[in-house]
Design brief:
The complex is a heterotrimer of chains A (about 350), B (about 230) and C (about 600). Chain A is about 45% helix and about 10% strand. In chain A, β4 and β5 form a beta hairpin. Chain A is built from twelve helices and eleven strands. The longest helix of chain A is centred in the middle third of the chain and has 17 residues. Chain A is globular, with a radius of gyration of 19 Å. In chain A, the strands form four sheets. Chain A has a four-stranded antiparallel beta sheet with strand order 6-7-8-9, with no helix packed on it. Chain B has two domains: about 30 residues, no CATH class; about 180 residues, no CATH class. In chain B, about 15% of the residues lie in helices and about 30% in strands. In chain B, strands 1, 3, 4, 5, 6, 7, 8, 9 and 10 form a nine-stranded antiparallel beta sheet that branches. Chain C has about 600 residues and is an all-alpha fold. Chain C is elongated and about 100 Å long. In chain C, strands 1-3-2 form a three-stranded antiparallel beta sheet. Classes of the chains: A alpha+beta (about 350), B alpha+beta (about 230), C mainly alpha (about 600). Chains in contact: A-B, A-C, B-C. At the B-C interface, α1 and β3 of B face α5, α19, α21, α22 and α23 of C. Chain C: This is Tetratricopeptide repeat protein. Chain C: InterPro entries: TPR-like_helical_dom_sf (IPR011990), TPR_rpt (IPR019734). Chain C: It comes from Azospirillum melinis. Chain C: Keywords: Signal.
């Protein structure tokens, strides 16, 4: 079996990143805002005609997360035709489980390669549908979203140690009394949108518990959250076995989602800002082993740097991070993070 | 409130107490988690030498006296081979083999037992503690250079007194690209042998000549020279 | 930059953080009135009124004070008043302290303080973040943030030290020096331990020194010296005890126990060295010192240790006197064993047999020791050409000295000259067991068994057992083991030592053992199982096994400790405390003290 999205992403070597940065001119360091033009460039590169987003960093596969991100960016870019193609492919190809959730992984050679769901993919898709319903005043999207949200609540929302938490997938993330969780699956703005639906109280509790867990799950010198964590029956959190024990490609989205939901408490952004400033805001390592603190030679991608820039601003660390422009061959994940960071900054009223 | 408890056992006690204590020494923290039975080690069980995943060259001085194994979770199997000891020194001669397999499925492996051996296998501190325990009152020296057996380089320390010599050798095999089959994550070997005389090479001969015979073939390091 | 904090207000009125993230290089050594407690931290008296770093009058942050008043926490309220006065001597507590206080921003901090006081630090953080999302212009008070950081740092120090990440302990303490103080002694100990583990012994010593010279309670100073004993040399411990017994005394505290802590540790060390010492390895001064202490305390275990020390030197008279002493203070088969062998060494076989009499057939130690007095073999024993009546053989003398390596050499030589006998192989088994080579021991016993079956049944002239006799004696007297039973017993013990619990449990009902031997093995199996159960966190099983075992044999000290932890983990804290305390009262050791102190702290929430 393959590990869920995010664990096999690669960035460029730190040396290369530093070179790219040296070429960038001071003054041109503001990342581009996200708009219709940005969406068209994104769609040209990652949206295939049949309606799937291709993960260029992962052998051209597609997954529920990508579909969700694509749908979100399409709404924000005002492209309803693209949105419908994305949603159509998702329904047709990935929603084959029969329980209203989405199979998470599809490969060009093998089709649906893993029928398990990835909760963050489901959430992104449902949230994008809700936003589409609002933007284009289309009730059908809302109905579809509500069905996914209901299936999620039934399948992956569970209570543990007095907290309402989100299983990363419906099957396989419980071991005895211990749960394996992914902090970056707390997509706070999506959760808030679900909480506003009829009967959404448990989603409200999920937000609260997310903040509690992010306060508890701080490891190593930088006090960063792990990509994968455990929560036992007593409420104690740990770093999950069976995955790389690190902060990295998954957990980098934690500050992004917090910012997108309007959180501004520096306490929640400081660990990421500390990491970024420690490395001069440029050659930030892509992963940090936990709790040991060993950093990889692989540098954070442009999209990750965009997240760090946002985190530094919210942590009160100022313009500590400079974000180079997206490269022509920037991969799917990095590009997506860059655009989402821009959207978050725009909604908070700060420079991207 | 985080309730973490350490307990230790008394040093010098009656034989009975010491026996009872033997299993306790490995324990560290005991929290509140109850459902960890699948993660703790099974008791040792006797196995036939033929069932060992390792074949040792025939040796008059260091024959296999007994073989035991145990499991820790679904990923670790530990084999302990007690070898003959021609000296009158305390402590068993032995070869320990830990085999760490990859679990069959990701979801089956979400919660794994803690590693049964540390990585790195030794630090200067833990090596000092170990050699002092294994070879009390002997002059211990850590070898400057590594030696090589079928599975690559290994490190060792020697201990000597007027009559006897001992060796402690350790090796971690993690070469996935070439040596280890897909399902095996790592193999750890530790070899502790004392013998009469001062011929260190003779003491290391069984370790130099051992062959691992796991269900899937482990390629030997020298097979790979041409690659 | 000065960061005022809540400390044990009597002694440490203020603390100044000078660290700028430079790490260990910023360590400030003791100078003037300042004492080093954490890297980059000086503990010093309150800044003079009006000095630069003190907040301007009228700007004192009363948030915490009002909170303590509202929840009625008088002790912390007074400490806070003292702290605020130290910051600003002109400041007076507000008269409306107990009146509800509307805040300027319209956000009431009470819920956050309540969460934090309940130990729900993460929940407090979450609630604050949510509040800030809703009211972007609001900021929590500095005092609230500071208390949160303090609680989080303490948690970080604890978890880093629990997982042996020593540098992180030091870093966490440096980032939040206020977390290391007398009222957070556990953190201070963990910091000192971290320095010691990082081989920064001077800093470890300085930290311990600061504790024993500034923290007022005698018990805390004493506990600190015990903690320090694991990391510091005897000389530095002596210095620490002397400082702790005299420096900055608080009224009503008796510091004599602080001074005696060092002597207690010293005795323990000497006794331990005695156990491992080669003849003559202890200086005359140390030896006489330990003898004096053992006599003072009438310490039977200490006397036995001294007995063996002299026995190994073949000073049988001195050994005999200490074993006799031990047996008078607390009769035991351990003391009797030594006595039997000491008399034997003196050539006084009648006395040796008399000393063994109360335990004969009841204690394997004694039966074993008696073999040195009356070797269990025929008239032409393998004693290297001598005959038995002429005195102890070379082998017997080696056994009497507990020289088991020599035992192996002699037996090897004998077998090479005149071939193996069942008795020799059995003796080899016992010696291998003593040398912690149980696999070979088991094989030796098995070999002895095979050989015995082939040897003609020759009645050992002076052996306690009658070869070939089987089954329990009809008389009801303690049953004497046959050689076959001795072999089976030896094998069982060897299997225990190799951890073959499952196999042994399976085979035990069919094994040819005396009732006493069987009970002994069963008791050991249960002890081993109890240990496993504790590891597996099956605490009720631990108690079940220990209770069953107790019916067979009195519970030894280490199993008593195991019982204590099982009770503790079942949250039966009071019983755990009583259990640890009763062990600690008999003989206080590091693990009994740890049990007592942990149970006590849990019961009284004194972390």
């Amino acid at each position: 079996m393959t590990s869920p999205v995010g664990t096999s992403r690669r960035g460029m070597l730190i040396g290369t990143a530093a070179l790219g940065l040296a070429a960038a001119v001071p003054g041109a360091l503001r990342a581009a805002p996200y708009d219709g033009a940005a969406w068209r460039r994104y769609a040209e590169r990652f949206l295939l005609p049949e309606g799937r987003i291709v993960d260029t960093g992962n052998k051209g596969i597609s997954h529920s997360e990508g579909q969700g991100y694509g749908m979100l960016l399409a709404v924000a870019g005002g492209d309803r035709a693209a949105f419908d193609r994305l949603w159509g492919w998702t329904q047709r190809v990935l929603m084959v489980r029969g329980d209203g959730l989405v199979a998470w992984r599809w490969t060009p050679d093998g089709g649906v390669a893993d029928r398990n769901n990835a909760s963050d993919g489901d959430m992104l898709i449902a949230w994008a549908l809700l936003r589409a319903a609002e933007t284009w005043q289309a009730e059908a999207y809302r109905t579809a979203a509500a069905a996914i949200v209901k299936a999620l609540a039934a399948g992956v929302l569970v209570e543990q140690a007095g907290l309402t938490v989100l299983l990363p997938g419906r099957d396989g993330f419980r071991k005895g009394e211990t749960l394996v969780l992914n902090p970056s699956y707390w997509i706070f703005p999506a959760i808030r949108a679900f909480a506003a639906l009829a009967g959404g109280e448990r989603w409200g509790k999920l937000s609260d518990s997310g903040l509690v867990l992010l306060s508890k799950a701080r490891f190593g010198g930088f006090q960063l959250p792990p990509d994968w964590m455990t929560l036992d029956a007593a409420g104690t959190v740990g770093i999950a076995d069976g995955f790389k024990k690190q902060y990295g490609y998954d957990a980098v989205r934690v500050p992004l989602y917090l910012a997108m939901d309007g959180y501004r408490d520096p306490y929640y952004f400081r660990p990421f800002a500390t990491l970024a400033t420690k490395f001069g805001g440029s050659a930030v390592p892509a992963t940090v082993s936990l709790p040991g603190g060993t950093t990889t030679q692989v540098a954070a991608s442009v999209g990750m740097l965009a997240v760090y820039r946002l985190a530094c601003k919210l942590a009160g660390a100022g313009d500590a991070v400079t974000v180079p422009p997206l490269a022509p061959d920037e991969d799917y994940y990095s590009t997506t993070l860059a655009h989402l960071s821009a959207l978050a900054a725009q909604s908070l009223g700060i420079d991207p | 409130m985080a309730v973490m408890q350490m307990y230790r056992t008394a040093g010098r006690t009656a034989l009975w107490a010491a026996l009872a204590a033997a299993t306790l020494l490995t324990s560290g923290c005991a929290g509140w988690v109850r459902d960890n039975l699948t993660q703790s080690a099974t008791p040792w069980r006797r196995i036939q030498p033929a069932a060992l995943p390792v074949t040792l060259p025939d040796s008059r001085d260091f024959p296999i006296v007994a073989a035991r194994m145990r499991d820790t979770g679904t990923v670790y199997k530990t084999y302990n081979v007690a070898l003959g000891n021609p000296t009158s020194l305390a402590g068993e001669n032995r070869l320990t083999v830990d085999v760490q397999t990859l679990p069959d499925s990701l979801f089956g492996a979400l919660v794994q037992p803690p590693r049964v051996f540390p990585v790195p296998l030794y630090t200067m501190e833990t090596l000092t503690v170990t050699t002092r325990r294994e070879f009390p009152d002997m002059k211990v020296k850590v070898a400057d250079g590594a030696r090589r057996n079928r599975y690559g380089d290994y490190d060792y320390a020697t201990a000597q007194d007027a009559v006897n010599s001992c060796v402690l050798a350790w090796q971690l095999i993690t070469d996935h690209k070439r040596m280890l089959p897909e399902r095996i994550e790592a193999v750890r070997l530790e070899y502790r042998v004392c013998g009469v005389g001062s011929d260190i090479r003779a003491l290391l001969a069984p370790f130099d000549g051992l062959t691992l015979t796991l269900p899937e073939t482990i390629l030997e390091a020298q097979d790979l020279g041409g690659l | 930059m000065t960061r005022p904090v809540l400390l044990s207000a009597l002694l440490l009125a203020g603390i100044a953080a000078t660290a700028t993230g430079g790490g260990s290089a910023a360590w400030a050594q003791s100078n003037g009135g300042a004492r080093a407690l954490a890297p980059g931290v000086k503990v010093e008296v309150a800044p003079a009124p009006g000095s630069g770093s003190a907040p301007a009058a009228g700007k004192v942050d009363e948030t915490a004070l009002r909170y303590y008043a509202r929840i009625g926490d008088g002790e912390r309220m007074e400490a806070e008043i003292a702290r605020l006065r130290a910051l600003d001597p002109g400041w007076e507590p507000p008269k409306d302290l107990f009146a509800p206080q509307p805040t300027a921003t319209g956000v009431d901090e009470t819920p956050f303080w309540t969460l934090m006081s309940a130990g729900k630090v993460a929940e407090a953080r979450a609630a604050i973040a949510e509040q800030r999302r809703k009211s972007p212009s609001w900021q929590p008070s500095d005092k609230l943030l500071q208390e949160l950081e303090l609680a989080e740092s303490a948690g970080r120090i604890r978890s880093a030290s629990d997982t042996k990440r020593w540098q992180e302990v030091v870093d966490a303490a440096a980032a939040q020096p206020e977390a290391v103080a007398c009222n957070r002694l556990d953190n201070a100990w963990r910091l000192a331990e971290a320095y010691a583990e990082l081989k920064q012994t001077d800093r470890a010593f300085d930290t311990y020194k600061t504790i024993v010279t500034t923290c007022p309670k005698a018990k805390e100073r004493r506990d600190t010296i015990f903690k320090a004993s694991r990391h510091l040399s005897p000389e530095r411990l002596r210095e620490l005890s002397a400082l702790g017994a005299t420096a900055n005394p608080a009224t009503g505290e008796d510091y004599s126990a602080v001074r005696s802590a060092e002597a207690e540790l010293e005795t323990g060390r000497l006794l331990e060295r005695l156990g491992n010492a080669k003849p003559g390895a202890l200086s005359a001064a140390d030896l006489s010192r330990v003898q004096g202490i053992v006599r003072d305390k009438q310490d039977a275990d200490g006397a036995i240790a001294l007995g063996w020390y002299f026995q190994k030197q073949k000073n049988f008279a001195e050994a005999q006197s200490w074993f006799t002493q031990a047996n008078e203070w607390a009769p035991s088969d351990k003391a009797a064993e030594g006595l039997v062998l000491a008399y034997n060494g003196l050539g006084n076989k009648a006395q040796a047999r008399a000393a063994a009499a109360p335990w004969k057939g009841k204690s394997s130690r004694i039966d074993q020791a008696l073999k040195a007095v009356d070797p269990p073999r025929g008239p032409s024993g393998p004693g290297g050409g001598r005959t038995a009546p002429q005195g102890p053989s070379e082998l017997d003398r080696a056994l009497a000295r507990h020289d088991f390596a020599e035992c192996l050499s002699i037996i090897r030589g004998t077998i090479a000259r005149s071939g193996p006998t069942a008795a020799l192989l059995q003796q080899r088994g016992w010696c291998l067991l003593e040398l912690k080579r149980p696999s070979e021991a088991e094989a030796a016993f098995a070999e002895a068994q095979t050989l015995a079956a082939r040897e003609p049944a020759k009645g050992g002239a002076s052996a306690p057992g009658k070869a070939g006799s089987r089954g329990p004696a009809a008389s009801g007297l303690p049953q004497t083991a046959t050689p076959a039973q001795e072999n089976a017993y030896g094998q069982a013990i060897a299997r225990l030592a190799t951890g073959d619990v499952t196999g042994l449990t399976r085979d035990l009902p069919r094994a040819n053992l005396t009732a006493t031997q069987r009970a002994e093995i069963r008791a050991s199996l249960m002890a081993t199982e109890a240990g496993r159960a504790l590891e597996d966190k099956r605490y009720n099983d631990v108690l079940r096994l220990l209770d069953a075992r107790k019916e067979l044999e009195p519970e030894p000290r280490n199993l008593g400790i195991v019982r204590g932890w099982a009770l503790y983990n079942l949250m039966r804290f009071d019983e755990a405390y009583v259990q640890f305390k009763s062990i600690d009262d008999r003989l206080s050791t590091e693990e009994s003290r740890e049990g007592v102190s942990t149970a006590w702290k849990t019961i009284y929430h004194d972390w």
